[in-house]
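go over this:
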Amino acid sequence: VEIRTHSSLRPTTVFCMASSTAFLLLLVAALHVCCCRGQGGHAGTGVAAIYSLGDSITDTGNLVKEAPPGAFETIKHLPYGLTFGRPTGRCSDGLLMIDFLAQDMGLPFLNPYLAMNRSFDHGANFAVAGATAMDPADQFNGRFSMPFTANSLKLQLRWFKDFMKSTFNTDEEIRKRLQSSLVLVGEIGGNDYNFALFGNKNVSEVEKLIPAVVQTIIDATKEVLDMGASRVIVPGNFPIGCLPSYLTAMAEPETSAYDSAGCLKDLNLFAAKHNAQLQRAVAGLRASYPDAAIAYADYFNSFLSLLKGAPALGTFRRG
């Protein structure tokens, strides 16, 4: 497996994470098990469509569709899309987790919501690279300056609702469709922290944002469930202390700042705190919606498993 990293340290640049095939396949397996064997829900039944909200981990082309001419040119050129033979608008040289998930369920790749003249018979992708969970108008209550993005989870949820209302005639038809669909709410929230941390805020300051970010994700998930969704996946955050951008920008002189995998301990602890709060909130959702299968996707430990097992999976090349 060849893993390419394409990271910029400029806070006004979209945070894109390159993906390895092994990482994606492992997570798809985990997501499939969570979804199809979750509490409540409709275990073993087919999924007719996938609807996805999130950021660059899931965006299949919305950012480049809405961007003005000349913006985000990097994503529009190889090596992005290398395994497709052409750039696709994905922040990856190949398939994303959402692509593998669609394949695993026998569905076509999801078209981006902003694409024109495309089929949405099997779902739609509302994710936008660089998106935040919190809305720019509410972000951090003015404590932090916002980057360029206006593509918050709130906006994506509005797109989702508008799409469903324009595609189906009644609320009952929407509910029926969603009961045979899978909805991903995330991964989202990582950019809320990225923009703050790369804006020179320290970890203890940014940690205060976790409750609001988590609540925003949960509120959006509730709205999706209230519309009729019966199978929902809510992913957690990655171990950001292992990401090349953070390892470069926030390098520490003391070896004690790093764990055995070479990751920054404080940043991984921060991400783990976000995930712990999100997991508790997802557990609360399961109690409130006993007839739905609601899964928390553990990106944190899946990433670490692959990082620590990397020698058995292939070679790394930084590019």
The chain has a mean pLDDT of 86.
